[in-house]
Amino acid sequence: MLNDLKELIAVRSVMGEAQPNAPFGDGPKQALDTFLAIAQKYGLKTHDENGYCGWAEWGEGEQIIGILGHLDVVPAGDGWSHDPYSLMCENGLLYGRGVADDKGPTVAALHAIKRLKESGYTPRHRIRLIVGCNEENGSQCIEYYRNHCEIPVASFVPDADFPIINSEKGILHLSLSFLSDAVLTENVTSVTAGVRPNIVPDSCSAQIPKGCPLYNTVARLANNGNPFLQPQAAKIIVDAGFRPQDYTAHFFENELLLESRGVAGHAMAPEKGENAAAKMLVLLNGLLEEKSPTLAVCARRLQAPNPATNLGIQQQDDVSGALTVNLGMLSYSSKSGKLFATLDCRLPVCANHAAVVREIEKNLTGSTAHILRWSPNLYIPESDKLVQALLDAYTQTTGNERKCLYCGGGTYARELPNAVAFGPTFEGLETNIHNIDESFPVELFDKLPAIYEAAIRKLDQAF
């Protein structure tokens, strides 16, 4: 099992430019080819759905029990203690991009099918492991599957937490554009942060032209190239809850480059990261003596780790939790005269996404919102036989507590009918998905095939 995972981790399956039979780029297609070759080695029937996704199947029957995993990953980023594309085991932990999200769990599910096949079990349904290549960027892969392929009668998705996730928040991606104002145009050439809406950005840079008021202010405050040791600049940062050491300034012949550093994380829990884009907005706004209306409203409304309250959209309910917001991307160019902020909002069942958009536009004065993605909530009651069958499998194999959870993350479960997320992360386990040093304990990884084998048996009997 670890050899199979090692082979998949080695593939840098980050979304790239579309190619023939590789709609999400060469990396995801190479991961798909690799996975299907591994499944064929174990005697499973396989199929490639034009590079969008693929599947490995075992058994006979008119209907399918589905398992859905994804092979694409988010960019690794800098600062890893191990090569992110080389599976490493150290101090009982497996390290590598995708080891938890979602190559590791997908390999575990494959080995669950392999174990069933070798045990002599005869399923009533065909067991199909469906693997996608675009989960991290909109799940167009499973949309393609839904429109072109046979739909399972019931499915589980090993891409979240145990015991079971029967409630997923709605996912709203918004692009907000602001027209530049005279102060912003004069003082800032560009701002850049973030690569995906669903990642808390861990770095942000701003170019400041030489001779402008902001440049002169920073130069006056500078001490050995670092202006943030001085009381005025430090107070601005500390008052906002940030650390002076998270900022640096670099002086060049014709400009100043300001950099802020944060901690990457998943947008479903933005408070677990540190948003470098928000830090930069606070700094720029604070240092400007004459305020930029655009920077001022963005700094005021977007600076919190979860700025839902600042934006006037805070809501929560018992079945899906609280609304969260992540400032995932920030860009500005004085040439274009526009600032763009991309938000990843995770909405509880009680929230109306259209009303949320209107409220954000109202509170971010001067902004124009464009919806990039809206994926509605998923909620399946605990009494449903799908949920009960999976809870049976979990409690009988682990002896752990029987209960349902909700999450802010979005999985393939919302893409097909009668599907829920089921593991692989055990309660209290931190795997650093979407962050550096993504990991998974070897001991727990070894337990996954038995849990998923039991889940397949329970669903095969229940439907």
Describe this structure in words.
The protein is an alpha+beta fold. It has 13 helices and 26 strands. It has helices spanning 2-9, 26-41, 103-119, 140-148, 182-187, 213-221, 231-239, 276-287, 293-302, 353-363, 385-398, 442-445, 448-462; strands at 45-49, 53-58, 64-70, 88-90, 93-95, 126-132, 154-157, 160-161, 165-168, 170-179, 190-193, 199-200, 203-209, 247-251, 255-261, 265-266, 316-317, 321-322, 324-333, 338-347, 367-375, 378-379, 405-407, 419-421, 424-425, 439-441. It has an eight-stranded antiparallel sheet with strand order 14-15-13-11-19-20-10-21. A six-stranded mixed sheet has the order 1-2-6-3-7-24, sandwiched between helices. β17 (316-317) and β18 (321-322) form a beta hairpin.
Please tag this protein with its features.
27% strand; single chain; 6-stranded mixed sheet; 13 helices; alpha+beta; 463 residues
Strands of the widest sheet, in order across it, are: 14-15-13-11-19-20-10-21
Structural Rg: 24 Å
Shape: elongated
Question: Which structural class do you get from the secondary structure elements?
Answer: alpha+beta
What proportion strand? 25-35%
Mean pLDDT, to the nearest integer, reads 94
Number of helices: 13
How many angstroms does the end-to-end distance come to? Answer: 29 Å
Largest sheet: 8 strands, antiparallel
Number of strands: 26
Name the poorly predicted regions.
Answer: none
Brief summary:
30% of the residues lie in helices and 27% in strands.
